[in-house]
């Protein structure tokens, strides 16, 4: 099963993709994570991407499609993948179609997480993650079970993304409305779009996605 999780910043794409990876063995393909790894490694791509990401703008289609194409050549994606953060423009949606055809793969669903825009700023500005294993948390909605200690690896160090401040988030939302939302009709025309209520609690959103994947919703 190969799916796209689509939704604005803070919709819960990363949260749900990690759960699907753990529960179903599907592979999470987050272009945001790939770009952040390139920035951390100070690679050529990372150096080009850093300022763009910090401002909340979109990195060029050419760069992002290049890193995704390389990732799709790894054998593990044959287990099934969850695209998280790609495609983000009509040009990327068209590139994805060509890439999947070349690699003999196809999409099963495009699942849109429908969220109330007011909630997004609150979700993103409250988000933090474990500095060691990357597990995601939120100041109010998902705190570690033991205060100050990561549930998964026990680390006591946490970090925040540099693009998670309110001003940048507002720009990311504007980019989503202008450049990413227009790809929905592309997938609607193919009958691939399903919707889940992204305002529900995390476990319920997960159940709704699982129901779609199991063909029951
Ligand atoms: P990326 O890393 O993809 O960020 P994003 O799309 O802005 O999405 P987020 O990671 O902010 O949100 P999410 O939907 O994953 O929400 P999450 O699950 O974390 O991209 C970053 C940047 O990289 C872009 O701005 C761009 O510059 C560049 N980039 C990446 N891909 C690109 C591409 N294809 N083309 C060009 N540029 C690209 O949840 C958020 C918080 O809410 C968490 O704290 C979580 O615990 C909480 N939460 C989640 N679900 C719920 C719920 N149901 N109820 C309550 N709280 C919830």
UniProtKB/TrEMBL annotation:
Residues binding AMP, per UniProt: 31, 36, 57-59, 85-88, 92, 161, 172
Stored InterPro entries: Adenyl_kin_sub, Adenylat/UMP-CMP_kin, Adenylat_kinase_CS, Adenylate_kinase_lid-dom, P-loop_NTPase
Catalytic activity annotation: AMP + ATP = 2 ADP
UniProt enzyme class: transferase
Adenylate kinase active site lid domain mapped to chain residues: 127-163
Pathway per the UniProt entry: Purine metabolism; AMP biosynthesis via salvage pathway; AMP from ADP: step 1/1
UniProt keywords, alphabetically: ATP-binding, Cytoplasm, Kinase, Metal-binding, Nucleotide biosynthesis, Nucleotide-binding, Transferase, Zinc
Gene Ontology BP terms: AMP salvage
Molecular function in Gene Ontology: AMP kinase activity; ATP binding; zinc ion binding
EC number: 2.7.4.3
Entry-linked CDD domains: ADK
Compartment(s): Cytoplasm
Signal peptide range: none
Binding site for ATP: 10-15, 127, 200
Domain of life: Bacteria
Primary subcellular site in the record, as a coarse category: cytoplasm
Region annotated NMP, chain positions: 30-59
GO CC annotation terms, alphabetical: cytoplasm
Domain notes: Consists of three domains, a large central CORE domain and two small peripheral domains, NMPbind and LID, which undergo movements during catalysis. The LID domain closes over the site of phosphoryl transfer upon ATP binding. Assembling and dissambling the active center during each catalytic cycle provides an effective means to prevent ATP hydrolysis. Some bacteria have evolved a zinc-coordinating structure that stabilizes the LID domain.
Family, similarity comment: Belongs to the adenylate kinase family.
Record note on quaternary structure: Monomer.
Main function: Catalyzes the reversible transfer of the terminal phosphate group between ATP and AMP. Plays an important role in cellular energy homeostasis and in adenine nucleotide metabolism.
Name assigned to this protein: Adenylate kinase
Annotated source species: Allosphingosinicella humi
Gene transcribed to yield this protein: adk
